[in-house]
Amino acid sequence: IWDLGEGRLVSTLKGHLSYVWSVAFSPDGLLLASGSRDTTIRIWDLETGKTVKTLRGHTSYVWSLCFSPDGSRLASASDDGTIRLWDLQEGKEAPPLFKGKTKQVWSLCYSPDGKYLVSGSNEDRIAVWDAGSGEEIKFLKGHTNIIESLSFSRDGAYLVSGSDDGTCLLWKWS
After folding, report:
1. Which pLDDT score is estimated for 95?
2. pTM for the full predicted model
3. Which of 39, 81, 83, 172 sits at 20 to 30 Å (Cα–Cα) from 22?
């Protein structure tokens, strides 16, 4: 953790046994989630710099993390081909388990209203999921390679995707 005013390192969050691939702030800014090649997700208290929960369930690298808009859940995307939801109050996996037809899930993002979860994979398409049921509703095709990054505009009007094909695609969300 850096003090930007003074330009100095205040503390380092240590605990993972391998590379950290993804980080995400909780909506209230009090927690940080980190996903690692060691297959774990750590939830950090930013005031103390301590791990408050370690989430286990993935069997391969954790590539992407996203908090639900209300901060009660964390979604994780993994090289094991799954998207998992975590109940942060309980500190354990929560239904539903999202399992598509892909070997790797590289990126994910909640819609600002929390109704949808979108994921990018090695199949050059974006899956749109019902966040409540875990059902794949549809998919968006436009990239020709892995979708590495996804983000919604604050108002939910647009989704942008970034891919290994060298493009960013802007999707009108309605």
Report:
1. 84
2. 0.91
3. 172
Task: Scan for tokens 């939801």, then name that residue.
Answer: 85
- Prior bond to 95 cis, omega within 30? no
What does the block give as tokens for 44?
């950090």
**CA–CA separation, 17 vs 39, rounded Å?**
9
Question: What are the tokens at 72?
Answer: 């009660």
| Tokens, residue 148 | 């590495």
Between CA 93 and CA 99, with CA 98 as vertex, the angle to 5 degrees is 120
How far apart (Å, rounded) are the C-alpha atoms in residues 125 and 105? 11
Separation of alpha carbons 111 and 104, rounded Å: 21
Q: In what order do the strands lie in the sheet with 168-172?
A: 147-152, 158-163, 168-172
Max CA separation in the chain (angstroms): 49
Paired tokens of 4:
């930007």
Q: For residues 119 and 105, is the Cβ–Cβ distance under 8 A?
A: yes
d(CA 132, CA 115) in angstroms, rounded, equals: 7
- Tell me the per-residue pLDDT of 111-146, one tens digit each, with 9 for 90 and over: 999 999 999 988 888 999 999 998 999 999 999 999
- C-alpha 43, offset from chain centre: 13
